[in-house]
Amino acid sequence: MHEMSLAEGVLDLIEKNAAEQGFARVLGVHLEIGELAGVDIDAMRFSFDAVTSGTLAAEATLDIRAVPGEAWCMSCCHGVSISRRGDPCPDCGSYQLQVTGGNDMMLKSLEVE
Ligand SMILES: [Zn+2]
Predict the structure, then answer these.
(1) Distance 85 CA to ligand 1 centre (A)
(2) Which CATH number fits domain 3-68+102-112: 3.90.330.10, 3.30.2320.50, 3.40.50.10320, 3.90.190.20?
(3) How many angstroms separate the alpha carbon of residue 80 from the centre of ligand 1?
(4) Domain range summary for the chain, segments of one domain joined by +
(5) What's the pTM value of the predicted model, to 2 decimals?
(6) Confidence (pLDDT) at 1
(7) Is residue 69 within a helix (H) or strand (E), and if so which, with residue range?
(8) Average pLDDT, stretch 84-108?
(9) Distances in Å between the alpha carbon of 59 and those of 1, 28, 37, 39?
(10) What pLDDT is recorded for position 110?
């Protein structure tokens, strides 16, 4: 389950921000996760709770926004939305797609005090 190491990465970022900005408690964490990032959102919530236990983010609520997958179809020469890597173009059925968005995870913002 790679969500555990992703969650640890998020916690590292939070702790780095806390050291730089001097906050002691995190109340909310907003993440954006691309549909093509291969991240299971339920597993991510579980892992986040596990790794933040006993840290400054122990009571933080985790808000996750799913970002739709985007790809460029080389057959129709336009951008399309896909929900899974390896899906064909919804317009022409071609598999010659290049993923252009929704393939990563980003820490968007923190609510702190
Ligand atoms: Zn197409």
Answers:
(1) 15
(2) 3.30.2320.50
(3) 8
(4) 3-68+102-112
(5) 0.85
(6) 66
(7) strand 69-73
(8) 95
(9) 23, 8, 26, 22
(10) 97
